[in-house]
Specification:
The chain has 2 helices and 7 strands; from the N terminus they run H-E-E-H-E-E-E-E-E. It is an alpha+beta fold.
Length: about 130
């Protein structure tokens, strides 16, 4: 049985919203340009972001990226090999810092997550 346009409106609206969200994310979320042997780190504070890009060396881990970004970006990152506690003093009681690699949430220890050229690393306060 053929559906009428009225019956397909929820599907059409959902599709348009999904396409709009993808367009907005792709064109309006600030992401640093990265070269062929670089990776990027974005720190998302919720109301603002800081982004860095830099060259990746062999056997580099997220832990090394955080150390380098802390120094280069004049940041105060309170972290160990497993978690970020505070960045520039920012830690909200009911939120924590989470690690994402290429938009996938990562639970592994920072020194166990290897970084490859083209990777996008993100720390999000959620």
């Amino acid at each position: 049985m053929k559906k009428t346009i009225k019956e397909n409106i929820p599907f059409i609206v959902a599709l348009v919203l999904l396409l709009l969200a993808g367009f907005l994310y792709y064109f309006f979320i600030p992401r640093p340009d990265i070269g062929p042997n670089e990776a990027a780190l974005t720190i998302d504070f919720g109301d603002s972001k800081r982004s860095f890009a830099g060259e990746i060396i062999e056997d580099m881990t997220v832990y090394h990226v955080l150390l380098a970004s802390e120094e280069a970006g004049q940041l105060d990152i309170d972290f160990d090999r497993k978690e970020v506690k505070k960045i520039n003093g920012v830690q909200i009681n009911d939120k924590e810092w989470y690690l994402y690699l290429n938009q996938e949430k990562v639970e592994d220890s920072f020194d166990q997550v290897f970084v490859n050229p083209g990777d996008r690393i993100e720390l999000r306060l959620e």
